[in-house]
Design brief:
The protein is built from 17 helices and no strands. With 403 residues, the chain is mainly α. The chain is globular, with a radius of gyration of 24 Å.
Length: 403
């Protein structure tokens, strides 16, 4: 037996469900099953038994997020030294990125973990594994300048209001990480939106006038009658730079390449839903193409709204929509559950993302609102799909009986 496991088992009689310190059982169980594969399996013959429990499922998602985490750390340091205008060595870029990003992640896990443990101890159940992902997804959607106290407030809202009041993992209607971000966005907009929040800018005279506007904000601010693509290029936003991700933005959302690596792992392991991801990407591309056709058919509209003429495939590399579709929309609890419903759910997220970006002047991103809205609509989508199956089977049985 592994020495660490043997040491843990020595404490089990005192911390177990019948032990003197049984109030600490959720913490003990979470530690043991996080470090080691549990021995408990279903005993009934109808059940399929394997080693992929919920914790292993969540850890696979965590592995898929590693490229986004690493790139987000590097990009935070890169944007900092870009603001300084110096050519810092690689180790310095990484170091500065770490000191900006790691405190945000630690705060998210520490405060959110406190609420998870507290609710588990009060309700006398195991600690919910879903926080392994919520605790890291939330900071990846934030700017590197976010105050740590706001991180604490946001994750508290996401865990307590977005999940625990519904009963915990499996009962929440909304994605907890996005719920936390939406709360911060509307409660403290100055610290989570605008040109000044996407890069850590030193308070020195050497960087006066530095702007870190995102590509979406630049495209939206294109003056009427001018070329949005040219406006983006002048601001330093090219298709290549946006795909690679060395751009101002949320910590983990800027790099399409990093997100694509994580997406490949999710699809290869079967943890991520290919139907939702492909449906979301198809929804964004087709809606973006429709907007391009509308601008082409009406020169007056194209002149008044230059962003409408931005090529449809730019929708995938601007902002955090690709990250949201891959890691947020595929949340198995808040997403649609039926196979046909997943296609519809994903497509509508892509459709609404572009719709909000194009027609809502106050909110240039759109993906967060699209996912939260479709979280609410997911049960209705599944209901419609199931009822359609029932009607189809009823017609088949009636035809069989009369045939």
């Amino acid at each position: 037996m592994h020495p660490l496991l043997r040491w843990l088992h020595r404490w089990k009689p005192w911390i177990g469900p019948e032990g003197r310190w049984r109030a600490l059982w959720p913490v003990y169980e979470a530690t043991e099953t996080f470090l080691f594969t549990p021995d408990d399996v279903t005993s009934g013959p109808p059940h399929i038994r394997d080693r992929l429990d919920i914790k292993r499922y969540m850890i696979t998602v965590l592995y898929a997020l590693v490229p986004c985490i690493l790139f987000g750390i590097y990009n935070a340091g890169y944007q900092y030294h870009r603001a300084l205008g110096d050519a810092a060595p690689l180790w310095r870029v990484w170091w500065d990125g770490l000191r900006f990003v790691v405190p945000i992640i630690v705060t998210s896990y520490a405060v959110g973990g406190f609420w998870e443990v507290l609710f588990a101890m009060v309700r006398k159940h195991e600690i919910n594994e879903g926080f392994l992902i919520t605790g890291i997804l939330f900071p990846l959607t934030l700017p590197p300048t976010i105050p740590l106290w706001q991180v604490a407030v946001g994750i508290s809202f996401g865990v307590v209001i977005g999940k625990e009041i519904f009963g915990g993992v499996g009962y929440n209607v909304l994605n907890p990480a996005l719920t936390a971000r939406a709360f911060l966005y509307f409660a403290y907009p100055a610290q989570i939106s605008g040109d000044s929040v996407w890069a850590v800018v030193p308070a020195t005279g050497a960087v006066d006038g530095f702007t870190s506007a995102t590509a979406l904000a630049v495209a939206r601010a294109t003056p009427a009658g001018t070329d949005a693509l040219q406006h983006l290029a002048q601001a330093g936003h090219t298709l290549r730079s946006m795909a690679v991700g060395l751009e101002p933005g949320s910590i983990g959302e800027t790099s399409v390449v990093a997100v694509a690596i994580g997406m490949a792992l999710l699809l290869l392991t079967g943890v991520g839903s290919a139907r939702i991801i492909l449906g979301g990407l198809f929804g964004m591309l087709t809606t973006g193409a429709a907007v391009n056709l509308l601008a082409k058919a009406s020169p007056a509209l194209a002149s008044a709204h230059p962003a409408w003429s931005v090529p449809f495939y730019y929708q995938l590399v601007m902002g955090g929509a690709f990250f949201g579709i891959v890691f947020m929309a595929t949340d198995p609890v808040s997403a649609a559950a039926t196979n046909e419903g997943k296609w519809v759910y994903g497509f509508l997220i892509g459709f609404l993302t572009v719709l909000v970006r194009v027609f809502n002047p106050a909110y240039p991103e759109g993906n967060m609102l699209a996912i939260l809205f479709m979280n609410v609509m997911a049960p209705l989508i599944d209901y419609v799909v199931i009822q359609a199956h029932i009607r189809r089977r009823r017609r088949y049985l009636e035809g069989f009986a009369h045939g």
